[in-house]
Amino acid sequence: MKTTFLLAAQYDGLAIIPLDRVCRDYFPHLSEQRLAERVQKGEINLPIVRIDPRSQKTARGVAIEHLAAWIDERKRAAEMELRSLAS
After folding, report:
1. How far apart are CA 49 and CA 60, in angstroms?
2. pLDDT for 56-73, tens place per residue?
3. I need a labelling partner for 58 at 20 to 30 A (CA). Which of 3, 21, 35, 78 fits?
């Protein structure tokens, strides 16, 4: 829950964070299109919201709680990796 509040502060309380900002802040090595492709392939577990599901050109973004969950999962994975290295 703490991550969600921190993201709310970072993104001025937006419920859906525009995909370009998610890319810029968390996936600077990927374009929006490449991020969407990796999500579709199941390589990145981060649901992308289409504001108008009938339009290919609609605005896309990520719900703040989904981004928070993804960050928290990455944090848990890093902690597990560190523990395994320390063993």
Report:
1. 6
2. 888 899 999 999 999 999
3. 3
Residues whose CB falls within 8 Å of the CB of residue 14, separated by 6 or more in sequence, listed in order: 8, 64
Is the full-model pTM beyond 0.85? yes
- What CA–CA distance (Å, rounded) separates 35 from 48? 10
Query: Is 80 exceeded by the pLDDT of residue 79?
Result: yes
C-beta separation of 62 from 17 below 8 A: yes
Structure tokens at 58: 């609609």
Q: Which residues pair with 61 in a beta bridge?
A: 18, 49
Q: Alpha helix (H) ranges present in the chain?
A: 2-10, 19-26, 32-40, 64-86
Closest CA to 22 of 7, 9, 37: 7
